[in-house]
TrEMBL record:
Protein family per UniProt: Belongs to the nuclear hormone receptor family.
InterPro entries per record: NHR-like_dom_sf, Nucl_hrmn_rcpt_lig-bd, Znf_hrmn_rcpt, Znf_NHR/GATA
This protein's name: NR LBD domain-containing protein
Naturally occurring in which organism (per UniProt): Caenorhabditis tropicalis
Keywords of this entry: DNA-binding, Metal-binding, Nucleus, Receptor, Transcription, Transcription regulation, Zinc, Zinc-finger
């Protein structure tokens, strides 16, 4: 009953005052909801929820992805926010874009990052984290989600490279100097992942589950033990669902298909590394470049991690 109540909460759990050892130490404190919830997750209760089925999960994830793309294409933040504000617990406020408003590449990059952070906040397990764990999770995971989501969208449109809505190039003009000296960055960032998606002929259902598996990576810096346990449990759950989907669509070849799909994580990671390298080179070639507060904070975090 306690577990079922917690997963319906709309606000994050409070941080444990005793280093998350209330249920295992000599002085047990069953008033600590975080530690009690961690025991529930460790016991496997996440996997026993009746509503976690392949069909219902795909429907829910499809709707979330659709809403994220709708916000990206038709909305903008109510006000300018910093990276720290975007990764706070509070939801991001959006308003409709003014008719005829044209975004440049910097504005699209900012909006893409914010919409992916907002998307992660809407996932069921996000509200089961403490505010500190949620911030660490959002900072660590949003970029992987943004990379894979953009690539899958353009792949579904039979495009050979990643771009922002309205066909806007993902590289700012400041990248010209970098591309001239490191042309492999442009090819790698724009085309590598889409090429592999096309080679494997990844379906939308596979993408939705893969995205969650990559998002739920428990190897997040500065996350608590309970946060890591929660992410690991959900990653295992989505992995099981993806394998089940592979069994449905590929029968005896399911293990091979499952392994091939998981290999996309290396390409996403490589793309993220290339983006970090490109940001570093831009600051070298264009030391006077001015980022807005959102991109400045995001770039600093990317380079530090």
């Amino acid at each position: 009953m306690f577990f079922r109540r917690v997963i319906t909460y709309k606000t994050p759990l409070k941080v444990c005052e005793f280093e998350e050892n209330c249920c295992g130490g000599p002085n047990k404190n069953f008033e600590c909801r975080l530690c009690r919830f961690q025991k529930c997750v460790t016991a496997g209760m996440i996997h026993n929820l009746e509503n976690i089925t392949l069909s219902s999960t795909l429907l829910q994830l499809s709707q979330l992805e659709f809403n994220k793309r709708k916000i990206l294409e038709h909305y903008q933040p109510l006000k300018q926010i910093t990276f720290e504000e975007a990764t706070d617990v509070d939801p991001v406020q959006f308003i409709m874009k003014p008719y005829g408003r044209v975004f440049d590449v910097t504005e699209w990059e900012t909006l893409d990052q914010i919409t992916n952070i907002d998307y992660l906040k809407k996932l069921n397990f996000s509200r089961m984290m403490t505010s500190a764990d949620l911030k660490a999770f959002l900072k660590s995971s949003y970029m992987n989600s943004a990379i894979l989501s953009l690539a899958m969208h353009d792949y579904s449109l039979k495009s050979g490279f990643i771009k922002f809505p309205e066909g806007v190039d993902v590289f700012p003009k400041e990248m010209d100097a970098v591309v001239a000296s490191k042309p492999e960055f442009e090819v790698g960032i724009k085309c590598r992942l889409i090429g592999r998606l096309a080679e494997l002929q990844v379906t939308n259902e596979e993408f939705l589950l893969l995205n969650m598996i990559f998002i739920c990576n428990p190897a997040v810096s500065d996350i608590s033990k309970s946060g890591a346990v929660l992410l690991s449990s959900y990653q295992q759950m989505y992995s099981n669902l993806l394998f089940k989907y592979c069994q449905t669509t590929h029968q005896n070849l399911a293990p091979t298909r499952f392994t091939d799909l998981l290999s996309l994580s290396h390409i996403v990671s490589k793309t993220k590394q290339d983006i970090a390298s490109a940001v570093l080179l831009i600051t070298f070639y264009k030391p006077d470049i001015e980022w807005n507060d959102m991109l400045k904070g995001a770039s600093e975090y990317l380079l530090e991690n």
